[in-house]
Amino acid sequence: MPATKIGVRDRLHRFDMRYTPYILIAPFFLLFLVFGLFPLIFNGAVSLRTWRLDDPTRDGWAGFENFTRLFGDTEFWNALGNTFGIFLLSTVPQLFAALIIANILNRRLRATTWFRVGALLPYITPVVASTLIFDVVFAKQYGLANWVLSLGGVDGVDWRAEKWSSWLAIATMVNWKWIGYNALLYLAAMQSVPRDLYEASALDGASPWKQLWKITVPGIRPVVIFTVVLSTIGGLQLFTEPMLFEPNPQAATGGARGEWQTIAQLIYKVGWKDLNLGYAAAMSWALFLIIVIVAIVNALITNRVGGGKK
Amino acid sequence: MGRAPQDTPGSIWNYVVLVGIIAFFAFPLYWMFVIATGTDADLANIPPKVLPGSRFLDNVREVFGLSEVYFSASLINSFFVSTITTVSVLFFCSLAGFAFAKLRFKGRNALMVIVILTLTVPNQLGIVALYIVMGKMPSSDGTGWNGTLAAVIVPGLVNAFGVFYMRQFIIGSVPDELIEAARVDGATTLRTYWSIVVPAIRPALAVLGLLSFVTSWNDFQWPLITLGGTEFPTSMVALSDLASGNYVLYRRVLAGAFLATVPLLIMLFVGGKQIVRGIMEGAVKH
């Protein structure tokens, strides 16, 4: 073989070894930079400006005007309260129910695959579609929820009239969607908890309930923390359910008096209905900070409760 | 006594509870179908009608016949968007996953840490700026990408979860010796990827493909922002248009919702086992 040919081949080979890896990962990083990281940072710049969609000439610096306005904005505080209310009503029962279901599925049962696939039905259902269904279920006059209540002799509830009832209805939709998914995550983790721990505790006469709290839950702590963080991030950004619970979604008001308007929904309203992108950007930065703080606090608490004192 | 929960036979009550829970999960889908097959009068029936009616095809025909919302076009748009996104995610994420799992290059670990960090960054929070960025994208008429499908497709072409998932799977399922043997035989990196890695990761590709399709199909917030008010949005935005206004016909809206859910139900029916396994494996490795 001629020496030059080997040289070219050799050089190609070296180029391949050295640079191809970067070419392979480049698409991810390029797209992330342009459509993920840059908007997030640029959002900070937009929040310091007067940026209106209907009047592009008004694009000067606003300083911290958008942020100071936030503090006196009752709509913002109302939305923040709603977001936390719905968040608590959904996350806590959701993860608790997921834990119980996973614990059942962790027993020796028939047809477990069937149950597991069934648990994913809500996960694959579009939130838009399921929310529209729950709209009918929680209708005031002919809704199924009120009919069931009437069977128990309870008067019908106007689900969209009060904060508590609208929060409960929306939390039900969120719980429906995520219980099964979280149960599968817990089940996966439960299967790798060492069995000799159970054997030892059974010798001490521990009940199944006690085993669940003393062995299983501490054993799957990392996954519990993961789900808590995940549902915090998702729960505080709740958008579709409150949007479509509204009889007229285009308004984005979250009820006649903002009973269930969430922050994500308010950001949409301020940005694309009131056309004030600068103020909407300030809100989303505030929400970002809130999410980070809550996620950290939650992770710390979960770590404590789960027995991570070591 | 003395047994792990996994060894304890489930009692009849376990089955009762589980069947009740599955019924709760399946119920909204069933109810959607019931209303999609009914008349306006059926909706105002007390006690509620619990069996499907016979008007499903009429309602579907009505949804497709609407001139305010082009529902059939929106379904085609959703198929288009989700298919392109899925193919792209599978290709680029498996390439990147392969690089992170098996290739040696400077800065590999630091870059992987960045990928993992981006998993926790909620992109939604930069949505205002993303809208502005899209407005600045080059286009023939100078108005940017907002209002076009490009704005929906391009940000979803790759994602951090896909890269992470592929990396984990490739580490565990493609032996280093096989890669090295291919190298010794003179195979290029791409050739190695195509003839050794791809055949070995087919199950993972199936799971990631199903999950990507579902995520893309179901996305609502960003498509609503960038496509809201346009004539040809995706099906989720079209559904929210159907449900807007003072006089909403739920049998029609839910017939549309049912049509937009069926493709995903089929995917779950066909690939359910794989999706379950994929989600559970992903959980343990986190």
Automatic annotation (TrEMBL), chain A:
<comment type="similarity">
    <text>Belongs to the binding-protein-dependent transport system permease family.</text>
</comment>
<keyword id="KW-1003">Cell membrane</keyword>
<feature type="transmembrane region" description="Helical">
    <location>
        <begin position="84"/>
        <end position="105"/>
    </location>
</feature>
<dbReference type="GO" id="GO:0005886">
    <property type="term" value="C:plasma membrane"/>
</dbReference>
<dbReference type="Pfam" id="PF00528">
    <property type="entry name" value="BPD_transp_1"/>
</dbReference>
<keyword id="KW-0813">Transport</keyword>
<feature type="transmembrane region" description="Helical">
    <location>
        <begin position="21"/>
        <end position="42"/>
    </location>
</feature>
<dbReference type="InterPro" id="IPR000515">
    <property type="entry name" value="MetI-like"/>
</dbReference>
<dbReference type="InterPro" id="IPR051393">
    <property type="entry name" value="ABC_transporter_permease"/>
</dbReference>
<protein>
    <submittedName>
        <fullName>Cellobiose transport system permease protein</fullName>
    </submittedName>
</protein>
<keyword id="KW-1133">Transmembrane helix</keyword>
<feature type="transmembrane region" description="Helical">
    <location>
        <begin position="277"/>
        <end position="301"/>
    </location>
</feature>
<feature type="domain" description="ABC transmembrane type-1">
    <location>
        <begin position="80"/>
        <end position="298"/>
    </location>
</feature>
<feature type="transmembrane region" description="Helical">
    <location>
        <begin position="167"/>
        <end position="189"/>
    </location>
</feature>
<feature type="transmembrane region" description="Helical">
    <location>
        <begin position="219"/>
        <end position="239"/>
    </location>
</feature>
<feature type="transmembrane region" description="Helical">
    <location>
        <begin position="117"/>
        <end position="139"/>
    </location>
</feature>
<dbReference type="GO" id="GO:0055085">
    <property type="term" value="P:transmembrane transport"/>
</dbReference>
<keyword id="KW-0812">Transmembrane</keyword>
<keyword id="KW-0472">Membrane</keyword>
<dbReference type="InterPro" id="IPR035906">
    <property type="entry name" value="MetI-like_sf"/>
</dbReference>
